[in-house]
Amino acid sequence: MPRRRRLRKVVAPPAFKGYRPYGANNINNEPVELLYEEYEAIKLADYEMLNHLEAAELMGVSRPTFARIYESARRKIAKALVETKEIKTVYGHAWLDKNWFNCKDCHAIFTIPKTLTEQVCALCSSKNIEPINK
């Protein structure tokens, strides 16, 4: 029986819900689902230029586990590019270090400080918000 999976720490959710290929006629293709932890691995390793050990420590996983998450993310992105598929971000097996919200009106992603009692959008002051954390 395998060990129980640990949740992977994600500092902030992606600021997008997905990407679509421009000019592709393959509308019926199933989208590629990029998990939040895979997005975080790509961000840490390729954007912030951290080595795998440093990135693994930030995500709260071992270095080999980070390498597997990173490899999975790279394969999914490559598949989406080569096969002209849409990329959608999904929650996956992660936990966010803060309570994040998504405004349904202006589509902003933000946190609300604990000092504020009213839950409204930080940009448009709308009350039509939903929590991203599950």
Structure description:
With 134 residues, the chain is an alpha/beta fold. It folds into 2 domains: 1-97, Arc Repressor Mutant, subunit A (Orthogonal Bundle), CATH 1.10.10; 98-134. The chain is built from 3 helices and 8 strands. The strands form 3 sheets. The chain has a 3-stranded mixed beta sheet. A 3-stranded antiparallel beta sheet has the order 7-6-8, with no helix packed on it. A two-stranded parallel sheet has the order 1-5. A hairpin with a 5-residue loop joins strand 6 and strand 7.
Using brief descriptors, characterize the structure shown.
about 130 residues; alpha/beta; Arc Repressor Mutant, subunit A; 3-stranded mixed beta sheet; 3-stranded antiparallel beta sheet; 8 strands; about 30% helix; globular
